[in-house]
Amino acid sequence: VLHYLAAAEVTDDPYLDGECRGSVIGRIDSDGHTHTLARLRPDVKAEGLAWLGSTSRYERWLVVTDADDANIAASLFELRLPASRP
Fold first, then answer.
1. How far apart (Å, rounded) are the C-alpha atoms in residues 86 and 70?
2. How far apart, in whole angstroms, are the C-alpha atoms of residue 50 and residue 61?
3. Which residues of 31-44 are buried (b: 16+ CB within 10 A; e: fewer)?
4. Dist. CA 83–CA 30, nearest whole Å
5. pTM summary value
6. Quick one: which of 1, 85, 76, 84 has its CA closest to 40?
7. N or C: which end of the chain has fewer CB atoms below 10 A?
8. Contact indicator for 3, 49 with CB cutoff of 8 Å
9. Residue 56's Cα: distance from chain center in Å?
10. Who's near 2: CB < 8 A, 6+ residues apart?
11. Comparing C-alpha atoms, which of 53, 49, 82 is closest to residue 63?
């Protein structure tokens, strides 16, 4: 199983930032199927994901954001999601 973090921006250029329309965390199963686990709210440009561990009830993740502005510090959040089932 592979987990991913994806941010959607309004831009046609992969190097120029655009308005962020949101971010999601998801997983790709061993059979190649993708599953969105959560859409992050509010709409933030999330760019970093780290797994902290899990219990029988939930998985713990760290998510870091990027405001695309040198004057705004990145934010770090802890995210708890229901434990995924294979």
1. 40
2. 6
3. eeeeeebeebeeeb
4. 17
5. 0.81
6. 76
7. C
8. yes
9. 22
10. 27, 28
11. 49
